[in-house]
Amino acid sequence: xxxxxxxxxxxxxxxxxxxxxxxxxxxxxxxxxxxxxxxxxxxxxxxxxxxxxxxxxxxxxxxxxxxxxxxxxxxxxxxxxxxxxxxxxxxxxxxxxxxxxxxxxxxxxxxxxxxxxxxxxxxxxxxxxxxxxxxxxxxxxxxxxxxxxxxxxxxxxxxxxxxxxxxxxxxxxxxxxxxxxxxxxxxxxxxxxxxxxxxxxxxxxxxxxxxxxxxxxxxxxxxxxxxxxxxxxxxxxxxxxxxxxxxxxxxxxxxxxxxxxxxxxxxxxxxxxxxxxxxxxxxxxxxxxxxxxxxxxxxxxxxxxxxxxxxxxxxxxxxxxxxxxxxxxxxxxxxxxxxxxxxxxxxxxxxxxxxxxxxxxxxxxxxxxxxxxxxxxxxxxxxxxxxxxxxxxxxxxxxxxxxxxxxxxxxxxxxxxxxxxxxxxxxxxxxxxxxxxxxxxxxxxxxxxxxxxxxxxxxxxxxxxxxxxxxxxxxxxxxxxxxxxxxxxxxxxxxxxxxxxxxxxxxxxxxxxxxxxxxxxxxxxxxxxxxxxxxxxxxxxxxxxxxxxxxxxxxxxxxxxxx
Length: 563
Ligand code: DQQ
Hints:
- The chain is built from four helices and 38 strands.
- Strands 26, 28, 29, 30, 31, 32 and 36 form a seven-stranded mixed β-sheet that branches.
- It is mainly beta.
- It has two domains: about 325 residues, Tachylectin-2, Chain A (5 Propeller); about 200 residues, Exo-inulinase, domain 1 (Jelly Rolls, Sandwich).
- The two termini are about 15 Å apart.
């Protein structure tokens, strides 16, 4: 981060806006929301984002553009890549995606335009100069808009085109998010094209589901059954499944299903047992919305980006002059053991920021104990922690918290919100991050075990993030989050990785099977006064088989125009 920018931010933002490190794309004086159109081109990763340069709230949106060689150190290009300056996007250049029509070729962008009469349409833009690796300038094609909401399609709910894929019939296909008010049906409309400019709507949506409202930012891609991730959007075959992710406008939840794509029928069918809506599978059970993946043809992997919103008030955002960040890019792949859910893991590039570390081996954490991890010289406000807990008992022999209410029992967030977070204690066992020395402030990331009262053979383990004591500031969103973790009953160990960056906490349980992102703005636990603790408030002793906490260095974030 350049020094002047940093000093200005420190003075203006006080304790609500620290130096965000790593690759977080905070935009001073801007509103940084949905990640748009990520891709790799001529040695650079590109990420666009929904951007309002005039205020830290949503407004007249354009596309900000940042580039990086390594997904960690970023350069924000000046101005915007797409301005709302044509009748077909004059009220906003909204979300969209990029497609490379030839291997190694320049990407093409499809994006949403809000027209002069507030109708949502799909537009196309291409690089002005494909020889420029930074693709600084984009031109909108004369054929715009290339898709319009016709017939019964709701014109104020027609947005967010996906990356297109090419069928074995040489026809391009793309999805556009939509809803039908009747039954609150969310839909992924399918469009087809031979030349990428003339698009025709298919007879029926690729998929739809009732009750949960508008599907924003759909994402559709293949995943390998063998758990490797080297699959471009157009790959077809028997050795894969497909993922359809939708962002639910009504509940602000990104959920996904895993299923089968039938190209000839133009249908996607989620696997039996897949749950639609906010109670379905989620990339992340915390603050994580409008996410988008891309196939990284540089390294043969699929990478996921998600928008992490703020936990402070809108008034605070306006005072500090910016809002929202992008999460750490994550590799996403099918969990080859279950074949029914995904695994995510921070890209290995983030490890280049690891600095000095502290390691513990085979430390017994007695019931009721709290232990501070000392030795992180400059505090634990920027830290990457990996820990493996060994249980005294097998998972099935653990003592579980008893839950009476079935509605609570089936909802991990409700489960994790229950119980008293009494002064100085926390539920389950795990880590306390962004904690003050006296623990008056703490964000608690823990494993908790629950059983149903009426039938105690029915059990669940959840990864919980308890934010109720995360800040002494009362004007904060302190929602607690939870996601179930599938474990084998015979398992005797559990793993957790938590990345902390001042106000951002990204937690990954069991190698990325369950993930939760949360935000907190402590008042005491800042910079060198932020601490890391392990605790055990479970029923039996827990052994820390291995814990390593790395202090994380800052990533470079520049706002000049040349790398
Ligand atoms: N944000 C964009 C829309 C999208 C929504 C507008 C999701 O295109 O549906 O800024 O956050």
